[in-house]
Structure formats: structure tokens, C-alpha cells
């Protein structure tokens, strides 16, 4: 299953997968110093948001929907599909950062689901409860729900660590008269 990570020239002497592709470490094209700087800023920003707002907005996004605003549009848009709430942690400044699942609910991209419903008439599938979640099946469901839209596709291998906040969307929903 790790063969998808291998790029041309990445085979070992026996033609198998290089050991670095079968471990649990994330690879990046950043230098070590630049990566540490970015991780430190991300960890601080996430902690500050939790302290000030009481909400975690740091997520590991699994999969991306590649979509277009209109049939004539040439600019591809990308939106994350599954959002896993995570925290960056380390026990001391000499330790490496570790990404930890926070045990909060895994969910879908609420803003994307709302936009697709309102502007494209797409009924976006909800992410099932964690114990029933089959990521591949969910991506299949997303592809099926957007199959009528030309050029739209799902990148199943996309993985992004970032900040995602739905506070404004939730406030917008609360103010919608149809929800009263």
C-alpha cells in the first residue's frame, strides 16, 4: 500500500520500496530549521486560539475536492474533505513535534458542503461517525455526489495540516430565519 509514495529513482538496490517510505514519519521538502520554525508557529497559533476562543481549529485534512466556480473557469479550486482535529505537541524544546488526534469528532468541511448545496445544488455527504468511517467509501460518495459536474475530481492522497474555522458559518446558520 506504500507503493504510491515511491517516485522514480526511489527504489532500493533490490527494486523494493526504500525504508523511508514505510516508516511513520512525514516527509517534507522544507529544511529542518524551516520546518521547526513553521511547526513552532503553528503550535503557538493553535494554542493561542484555544486559550482565547476555547475552540481547536487545527485539523489534519484528508482528501481534496478539486472543483471549479463555473464551467468556463480555468482556475481549479481545492477544498479539504475530511477534517481530523489534531494537536501539535512536544515534551521539551529538544524533542520533535508529534501530531496527536484530540479525540474530538471527525467531520466534513461544513463551508464546502454549504457552498455546494446553495450554489451548485449538490447534496454533499456527511462524514459518518468515526467507528463507521470508511475513508475510501466516503471519497466514493463525494465523487458520486459531484459526478454531474464536469472536471471535478477527488484527490484521495491529499493530506494537509492547517487551520479551519467554521465560527462565521455557524453564526450565519443561526441567523438564518429558516432555522428559527
SSE blueprint:
Elements: H1 32-53, E1 58-67, E2 77-89, E3 98-101, E4 107-108, H2 110-120, H3 135-145, E5 153-163, H4 167-175
Antiparallel strand pairs: 1-2, 1-5, 2-3, 2-4
Structural summary, described in words:
By secondary structure, the chain is α+β, with helices and mostly antiparallel strands. 29% of the residues lie in helices and 22% in strands. It has 4 helices and 5 strands, in the order H-E-E-E-E-H-H-E-H. The protein has helices at residues 32-53, 110-120, 135-145, 167-175, and strands at 58-67, 77-89, 98-101, 107-108, 153-163. Strands 1, 2, 3, 4 and 5 form a 5-stranded antiparallel beta sheet that branches. Strand 2 (77-89) and strand 3 form a beta hairpin. Residues 1-6 have low confidence and may be disordered.
Assess the beta-strand content as a share of residues: 15-25%
Strand tally is 5
What is the H/E order?
HEEEEHHEH
Q: Give the oligomeric state.
A: single chain
Provide mean pLDDT, rounded.
84
Shape: globular
What is the number of helices?
A: 4
| Estimated helix fraction | 25-40%
Span from first to last CA?
Answer: 48 Å
Q: State the major sheet.
A: 5 strands, antiparallel
Weakly predicted, low-confidence segments:
1-6
Radius of gyration: 19 Å
Query: Which structural class do the helices and strands define?
Result: alpha+beta
Defining key terms:
180 residues, alpha+beta, five-stranded antiparallel β-sheet, 22% strand, globular
Structure at a glance:
The protein is α+β, with helices and mostly antiparallel strands. The chain is 29% helix and 22% strand.
